Amino acid sequence: MTDALSPAIEAVVARAAAAAPAVAAVEPVVRARALVAVADALEADRDRLVGIAMRETGLTEARLNGEVARTAVQLRLFADTVAEGAHLDARIDPADDAFALGARPDIRRVHVPLGPVINFAASNFPFAFSVMGGDSAAIIAAGCPLIVKAHPGHPELSDATAEVAADALSAAGMPDGTFQLIHGREEGVAVLRDPRIAAGAFTGSIPAGRFLADIAASRPSPIPFFGELGSVNPVFVTAAAVAERADALAAGFLASVSGSAGQLCTKPGVVFIPEGSALPDAVRAAADGSAEHRLLNPGIARAFEERRDAALAVNGIRPVVDGALRFDSEGQGWALPTVLAIPLQAFRAARETLTEEVFGPFSILVEVPEDTDLAALVPEFFEGNLSGTVHLGAEEADGGTANAADLRALVEALARQVGRVLFDGWPTGVAVTPAQQHGGPWPATTNDSSTSVGTAAISRFLRPVAFQNAPAALLPLPLRDDNPLGVPQAVSPTGASQHWGSLARG
Length: 506
Hints:
The chain is α/β, with parallel strands linked by helices and 506 residues long. The chain has 2 domains: 26-87 and 115-229 and 450-462, Aldehyde Dehydrogenase, Chain A, domain 1 (3-Layer(aba) Sandwich), CATH 3.40.605; 235-423, Aldehyde Dehydrogenase, Chain A, domain 2. It is built from 17 helices and 19 strands. It has helices spanning 7-25, 28-44, 46-57, 61-84, 134-141, 155-171, 185-193, 206-218, 239-258, 279-286, 298-312, 344-349, 351-354, 374-381, 394-397, 404-417, 502-505; strands at 90-93, 107-113, 117-120, 146-149, 179-182, 199-203, 225-228, 235-237, 270-274, 293-294, 318-321, 324-327, 333-336, 338-343, 362-368, 385-391, 418-423, 462-468, 489-491. A hairpin with a 5-residue loop joins strand 12 and strand 13. The longest helix has 24 residues, at 61-84. The chain is globular.
């Protein structure tokens, strides 16, 4: 089913569709300069944008300034990636009369942009995963026209950011229709259903993400949909780690749970600790003097209250840090961090209640008996997650302790369930760097082979095309022998097939 578009939304989609060939044809260096121009413009207007964001979201000035910096860094990282051309994955197999299976034709393969993409912006990262955040940067970097559906939690900031970005892209020479912003849930759904849209991106809740993913999959011509949804981010702390640094672990844990009022997709929601360890007392001491923080909006605050109350009602659970939630006269929720503890058996009995993500400053310490198979707990309690963390003692990290095999099994179990395995750190604070993997199996994301952070994020909005025996004049520039763009090219030497298998033989 295709929804009828209002005249205003029809104009947006038509403009994006008409712009697609021109946006795809923009030389990589020009596209790269445009991304840098957006980064520069956002930083130049930082004070005004951060002021709007503070009022609309309740997030702190320091957090929002950090987000602007992160957004600019990712734009510049993608700019260099585009200028260098590795994301195109250009492969050239020249014609080869000595090919092992008979004469090989000339075959050349490169990635090309998908076409117009709609990105549904997030509430909890008003810069880094919103109008000009990571998904938007990846879409433009890939050479696709971008339509952003603004999040209703920060509409004024969305408009202001869009104005800054549109002006910068236009001044940098990008075609009209490269970037557009729309508002409204129904409008976003209608755009996603439109046959001119080639892909979708989303950051938000599991129900909303599943709803949109199902729309993308059920279209007459299904399209890729890259959603980042829910994650509990399990953490495992060994007895040796607690014995060596209980206070430091407690401080890092509290900072990770309570930062930005716990409204982060990488917040550690469940922490497995040794039964009878000193960590709960250390956490209680570290929480002394915690300040309350406003949640993003009243709807999130009410959902947090419901999930928190359900957890507190579970048999066998006890507060380590009581926490609190109050609502002001405008309906905004203000929270103090809540940390609960529960024995493994009681956690197992209440798994349906306690293994769901609680979006807010909340976490559970699960007390595990000494001889428990930690690796087995991962598939028992969790589906996909964005991250999994292991805290080790110093000798355990060197691999020389009696439990080394058990720890390797734990790490392997986590690697099957998450996109990022951390050691001796906390999962909040996702580094913007080429090797980053910010994704994971369902329900962490709708596509467990993709990432929304790092340079690999660009590939989501590209598809491969091979050209066989193409005249040089008709080849895409990245596949030409003279390589006018200077992109990396993987060239298969003629005659090499006669020796395939030799590396395996040794």
